[in-house]
Amino acid sequence: MSHSSSSTQPRPLARYGWDDTYEHAFTPHLAAGLIPARIVRAERGLCETVTDAGTVRAEIPAAQQGDPLAAPCTGDWAALRPGTADHAAILQTVLERRTALVRSTASRTSHGQVLAANVDTVVVTVSLAAPLKHDRTERMLALAWESGAQPVVVLTKADECADAASAQAEVSAVAPSVDVLVTSAVTGEGLDVLTAVLTGTVVLLGPSGAGKSTLGNALLGKPLLATGAVRATDGKGRHTTAWRELLPLPGGGVLLDTPGLRSIGLHDAQSGLEQTFADIQQLAEDCRFTDCAHVSEPGCAVLAAVEAGTLPERRLESYQRLLRENAYAASRTDARLQADREAAKKDITRHLRATYRFRERQQ
Questions:
Q1: Which of 129, 141, 152, 295 could cross-link 276 (Cys pair, CB 3.0–4.6 Å)?
Q2: The pLDDT of residue 44
Q3: Per the annotation, does 214 bind a ligand?
Q4: 156 annotated among ligand-binding-site residues
Q5: How many domains does the chain have?
Q6: Is 287 marked within a binding site?
Q7: Residue 168 lies inside a defined structural domain of this protein
Q8: Which residues bind GTP (predicted)?
Q9: What is the per-residue pLDDT across 306-326, written as a single tens digit (0 to 9) for each?
């Protein structure tokens, strides 16, 4: 039987997003006796994958775990060396990613961490049962735009909000060029509209307590994701999702649920920030100076908009704060790379000196 995704019998992997482009890219791996797989979960040197033959647990070689940005993660397409009676399957290589949702590591080091790969739609979840935090929404949107995927803002728990329409208008003002949808997993409000705009691999992004898992279950049509109660004191929930996992959606596509994120640090997200704050970018085109920082410069169109009340001062402050954070993360990355280069040079020098000393002793 042909395994081509264009045949009358498509690969079972098609349910997980496999297409002709991946089929073509996999040709050399197929010739080497490897099989295609999509990573469902990856943790501690092992990963759970889905293949044409079903679920396969594979080992991740140590060489592929060193760089957090390159390490296999949920959503990656991979080439597996099939297991034998004596040895488990081995993840041989990861195919080139189309998109990647990257944040700085929780420790705020100079390293980035890939939350999900090959994502098509990022659903930024915002709970209407708690006070709106626009700074956090803007941060998540920058992350989403930078990934290369299409963001969608979903306002959850509309059944617990007295004026969802006003909240929708408020959030829309901080999410230019993004659909902002009102939903309720309890009443079913907005779920049909949301389902219509979701495409491909869909990732749910947001803090604990935002209703991601409940929303995910509504989209899946089954209670497959664990949910938990939210504390009344601060509106936060427990991290009921402990890892990322992929689940096929009934109408096509794949759902990727992520743990609630306590912190979302930016990592090399300049383009994402420019798209998130497209309104400020547009205003800046009329500034007198091309390198205007929008602080106190004369002829600043952005400050003029703040003065006129057409641009909230809070939004400009959020933009400048995220720009500083992103610049700092970039400088830390540059410093780390420079340190790595210097360390490599020192290793080479030590090796050469040891070689010369050895030769001298042989003479």
A1: 141
A2: 82
A3: yes
A4: yes
A5: 2
A6: yes
A7: yes
A8: 156-159, 206-214
A9: 999 999 999 999 999 999 999
